[in-house]
């Protein structure tokens, strides 16, 4: 965990409040949809047979000659699922000197897991990669964040496995955080997310974008789809402006559609500080410089130079 030490230190003390009341969960730190007689006072209700007499407001009874019970919002746990896209496109850029989309997603995922775990919420992990998926059920025990980090460190991006079928199997009374470049089964995933949010899930999309996707180098390049190797084309200087326009439209479309599905949305770039990125997800704010991410064609990834 030494590689994650500075990240975890920077996030110490950060808490992740639920965006809305939590239903159908054990007692915890978040406001619950259930009403009780402990916690933060919210309203009065007329006394009914079977109510605990200790919940009566005796002063109000003396003033009004009517028996009222003080109700409060109970507190509940919010299980958090961290879902990481480890498809082939997340390996971009492949250069050793640059942080890949998967490397950034891994850092932010560990940071978010630590924040959720610090609130005593159960935290689990789902990583989708070429060999299928790895799943760690939500846990609150000590060492959970370290375990999730070890699983992520042992995964290499590859393949093109869809996210939607696996996300559909996650419980709806949970927080689901998806770290992805949105270049896979985005349409199916958004339909799944919309159904989950209607059922009560709290969903966050962390859209990971590589700096190299935003600022292509000069020259002429052969570009290819890492998940469809036969799909390749030459990208010249003349096509660079058209590519950037399409990619900007794609990012705007993603932001609009994720929010329309009832989910939170944060664009995170590979050059962003991972701790700041995790804080932005928790606070629901945009990172400075992030684009105004609506569907355009899947952008190509630079692969190799064919001339300059």
Protein described:
By secondary structure, the protein is of the alpha/beta class. It has 2 domains: 242 residues, von Willebrand factor, type A domain (Rossmann fold); 47 residues, no CATH class. The protein has a 6-stranded mixed β-sheet, sandwiched between helices. α3 packs antiparallel against α4. The chain is elongated.
Q: Biggest sheet: strands, sense, closure?
A: 6 strands, mixed
Q: Spatial order of the strands in the main sheet? A: 6-5-4-7-8-11
Strand content: 25-35%
CATH C-level class of the largest domain: Alpha Beta
Total domains, how many? 2
Global morphology:
elongated
**Helical coverage, percent range:** 25-40%
Give the structure's gist in a few sentences.
By secondary structure, the chain is of the alpha/beta class. The protein has helices at 5-10, 58-64, 101-118, 144-153, 164-167, 186-199, 211-214, 237-260, 274-283; strands at 30-36, 40-46, 68-76, 80-85, 123-129, 132-139, 175-180, 202-209, 220-225, 228-235, 264-269, 301-307. A hairpin with a 2-residue loop joins strand 5 and strand 6 (132-139).
Q: What does the secondary structure layout of this molecule look like, with pairings?
A:
Layout: H1 5-10, E1 30-36, E2 40-46, H2 58-64, E3 68-76, E4 80-85, H3 101-118, E5 123-129, E6 132-139, H4 144-153, H5 164-167, E7 175-180, H6 186-199, E8 202-209, H7 211-214, E9 220-225, E10 228-235, H8 237-260, E11 264-269, H9 274-283, E12 301-307
Parallel strand pairs: 4-5, 4-7, 7-8, 8-11
Antiparallel strand pairs: 1-3, 2-3, 5-6, 9-10, 9-12
Helix pairs in contact: 3-4, 3-9
């Amino acid at each position: 965990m030494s590689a994650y030490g500075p990240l975890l230190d920077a996030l110490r003390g950060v808490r992740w409040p639920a965006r809305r009341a939590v239903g159908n969960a054990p007692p915890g730190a978040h406001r619950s949809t259930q009403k009780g007689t402990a916690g933060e006072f919210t309203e009065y209700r007329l006394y009914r047979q079977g109510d605990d007499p200790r919940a009566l407001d005796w002063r109000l009874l003396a003033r009004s000659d009517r028996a009222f019970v003080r109700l409060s919002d109970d507190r509940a746990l919010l299980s958090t699922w961290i879902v990481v896209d480890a498809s082939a496109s997340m390996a971009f850029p492949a250069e050793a000197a640059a942080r890949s989309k998967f490397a950034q997603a891994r850092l932010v995922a560990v940071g978010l897991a630590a924040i959720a775990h610090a609130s005593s919420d159960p935290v689990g992990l789902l990583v989708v990669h070429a060999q299928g998926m790895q799943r760690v059920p939500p846990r609150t025990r000590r060492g959970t964040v370290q375990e999730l980090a070890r699983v992520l460190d042992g995964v290499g991006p590859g393949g093109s496995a869809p996210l939607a079928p696996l996300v559909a199997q996650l419980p709806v009374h949970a927080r689901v955080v998806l770290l992805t470049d949105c270049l896979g089964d985005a349409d199916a995933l958004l339909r799944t997310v919309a159904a989950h949010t209607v059922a009560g899930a709290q969903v966050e999309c962390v859209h990971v974008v590589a700096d190299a996707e935003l600022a292509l180098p000069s020259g002429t390049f052969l570009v290819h789809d890492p998940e469809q190797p036969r799909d390749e084309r030459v990208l010249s200087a003349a096509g660079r402006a058209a590519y950037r326009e399409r990619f900007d439209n794609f990012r705007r479309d993603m932001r609009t559609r994720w929010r329309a599905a009832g989910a939170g949305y944060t664009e995170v770039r590979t050059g962003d500080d991972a701790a700041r990125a995790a804080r932005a997800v928790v606070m629901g704010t945009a990172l400075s410089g992030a684009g105004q991410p609506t569907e355009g064609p899947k952008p190509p990834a630079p692969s190799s130079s064919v001339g300059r």
